[in-house]
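Follow-up to my post from last week.
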Amino acid sequence: MLVLTEISKRFESPHGPPVDALESLSLNVPAGRFVSILGPSGCGKSTIFNVIAGLEVPTSGSVCVDGVPIDGLSGVVAYMLQKDLLLPWRSIIDNVVLGMEIDGIPKREAYARARPLLERYGLGGFESRYPSQLSGGMRQRAALLRTMLCDREIVLLDEPFAALDAQTRADMQEWLLDVWDDFKKTVVFVTHDVDEAIYLSDEIVVMSARPGRIVERLPIELARPRQRSVITAPAFIAYKERILAHLERTVSIPR
Amino acid sequence: MSLEVADVAVQSPARRRDARGRRLRRVYHERPPATVPVLAGRLTLFLGALALWELSARLRVINPFLWSMPSLIAQEFVRTLRDGSLLADASYTFTSTVLGFAIGTLAGSAIGLSFWWSTYYAKIVEPFLVVFEGIPKLALAPIFVLVFGLGIESKIGMAVALTIVVSALTTYGGMRAVDRDLVRMVFSLGASRWQVFRKVIVPGTFPAMLSALRINIGLALAGAIVGEFIGSQRGLGRAIEYAGQTYNIALIWSGIFTLSLLSLVLYLVTAWLEANLLRRFLHQGR
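User reply:
Got it. Predicted complex:
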């Protein structure tokens, strides 16, 4: 279980006043759950992300995984960004096994683990291609597989599909649900796409504009596995209206 | 106003499209020139220039003693080729150039890469590199000949001096351009600094290191030649210097011609090497 306790993050700025990105934010994510963080731009979504990933140290508060504090430690959770960050000089399979390679797993074994997954997730036959030869959707799939294969309980995804076109994005969402179902990981998903968040998540955390605070935690009780058609179901619409109402309120504050 | 707009719209779209179509055809649809006429043209230009040179020297339009002429130069070339001195000199210069090039490029790249390990170290050393780059290093030749002697070491030393900083600065620049998110991502997978260095920094900087090759091969040759000018018993530079002292102008030209051939060969090999390494190891470029 991932627990954030009273996290605050203040960025000191040499010109002008300091910026409070996060203000005593507490959140717990039970193991195996899919939680999305939604909020207006500049609400500190990415700061939460960086704090959990250990890329930034919170000004106060703590991050614990199963009771062990991990603030400032990288390599505890796996993450993925909007950019696929594949190494252009490595073939797809060599990119996908990168995490295992770093963990010291022998290449043969890593390949053996990756091959069936590449096959299963639509990258079969592309193992020895290079990132520049693949479409954006395929590259993101390879990046996600790499993230999933590196043996971390918790996976952070920061707007992983934001750069894709609408059709590819819809495919990727369904694909992500399949992968999540297979790997049973805890997922923290950062997005500003309300439909995407509802469709994917067990729970949605809505944040306010800066300084980022949680204004609502909304469990999504739509049956799984979810069909694409769920996005027109009345329950889905009801969730969406509720979230949009929150977002509207948080956005209107600074005006 | 509106009348004009209507006028244009009614009257001329067909003609305008026509005109644009013609321009596009000229700019984009032109075929690349065929190989044979291009080669023939180059050969004609080369032979024509030689013929003009020969003719004006024979007709005393230019002073044949100062300028020599292609026929005499060819004689000298064949003579030195026969007595073996040309090949001996060329291989001496070739050896010092290639060794200096290899040492300078490798050491320079290593220096550039070493800056990744400490920003303090990089900040402290960088201005010294930039200043050293600014020194006209050919002026160091007398010192190098004194320190390393008249043998091949001083020529290699000159070639290294000319190439090492170029490689170091290019490598350093390329290294700083490596995507920081890539580095962070590999760290997040639990990689050690050494692993990040090996798996991201070195391959990410490789194109920059390669881009220094073509500049360096020319610089290395210049360094070796100048080393030979200052003091040497062998090499094309020494042969040219010697020919100048004995007023054998044809021999000077023959040496210059050989040098051009040598530098052309080195350049082509380096360019080929760069393209191949890029393709094979990085799957970049075409």
